[in-house]
Amino acid sequence: MSKKVTIVDPPEGFNGPGFYAGPLDKIIGMARSYSLWPLPFATSCCGIEFMAMQAANYDLARFGAENMRFSPRQADLLMVCGTISKKLAPVLKQIYSQMAEPKWVMAVGACASSGGIFDTYSVLQGIDKIIPVDVYVPGCPPRPEQIIEGFMQIQDMVRKESLRRRDSQEYKEMLESYNIS
Questions:
Q1: What is the dotted CATH code of the domain comprising 36-151?
Q2: Which of 48, 63, 123, 149 sits 20 to 30 Å CA-CA off 35?
Q3: pTM value?
Q4: 140: annotated binding-site residue?
Q5: pLDDT tens across 30-81, in order?
Q6: Mind spelling out the 3-state secondary structure of 52-87?
Q7: pLDDT tens for residues 120-160?
Q8: Residues 75, 97: contact at Cβ < 8 Å?
Q9: Is 111 annotated as a binding residue?
């Protein structure tokens, strides 16, 4: 159950921004959804499509994500683009565990989602084997429009997520199943 925030009368002489009235978790969700800081983890051809998505033709900045972070401690959206080898999997898991809560993950491309065409002993068959994934973007490689659609789905999830979801027993058990605490 969300708490209601209601401010009836602004202070005398207040000329600042307008007041919001509504559930606090909805207001925070809206603010979070337009201020995501992605951490790109691009390893192969999907990384090129990710770079195209940042260019002027597609411009991810119009969704509030122009501030790319290359430090996991400052990012809240991990975008895994491309093939992940089993040797690279512990690095990806460590990066995920270094990110602060709340955090979201997007698997971009067939390789990050399911191993793609590389059904070999050395390629991880989907990053969901080591970290939880919120949105999968299909394609080999996916078009920039598809990646933007995936980003918009993440924004929708962020906007609708309860503030208490991350404290739930179900969420903690899910992290324990991935050996992430």
A1: 3.40.50.12280
A2: 48
A3: 0.81
A4: yes
A5: 888 888 999 999 888 888 888 888 778 888 888 887 788 888 999 999 999 9
A6: HHHCCCCCHHHHCCCCCCCCCCCCCEEEEECCCECC
A7: 899 999 999 999 999 999 988 888 889 999 999 999 999 88
A8: no
A9: yes
- Classify residue 133 as left (phi > 0), alpha (psi -120 to 50) or beta: beta
Domain boundaries, the chain: 1-33, 36-151
Most confident option among 26-30, 90-94, 100-104, 171-175: 90-94
Residue 81 among known ligand-binding residues: no
How distant, in Å, are the alpha carbons of 8, 29, 56, 101 from that of 41? 46, 25, 21, 18
Q: Which residues of 32-66 are buried (b: 16+ CB within 10 A; e: fewer)?
A: bbeebebbbbbbbbbbebbeebbeeebebeeebbe
Peptide bond into 102 cis (omega under 30): yes
Residue in the block written with tokens 């906007």: 159
